[in-house]
Sequence to fold (153 residues):
Amino acid sequence: MSDKRDPSVWQGFKAFLMRGNVVDLAVAVVVGAAFTNIVNAVVKGVISPVVGAIGTKNLDHYDSCLSASCKGDQGIQIMWGSVLGAALQFLITAAVVYFLMVLPMAKFLARQEARKKAREGAEETVEVTELQVLKEIRDELVAARRNSEYGGR
Fold:
């Protein structure tokens, strides 16, 4: 009984791995991890020093205390600097992905679609023109036949 179940489980697992979506997802995760390192370096090397010119270089040092006394780890601290840093990293990542990947790809696809529609429009024009020429030839042949029938009698 287990001999019959193992091949089907193995075949199902094999089919799952062979789907194109799994490979695409794996590539996206690897590229995303590498891209995260780039964004973190930009934030650490560019954004944090700019913010550091105003206050501290590390955004994690910005916090607020909700309790009466916050000394060290005591008290209730809101680490809003960490949230601000994460939000900046997100915005930078989103901007880079949009402006360097999404926008150029959308423009490329729009150009491809426009070329495709132009080709289809040209083919339709050629087909209509050919059809029109064939109709004119037919009409000329019919007219010539009528003239020869009436003129020949």
Remarks:
- The mean pLDDT is 78.
- The longest strand covers residues 64-65.
- Strands lie at 64-65, 77-78.
- The first helix runs from residue 2 to 18.
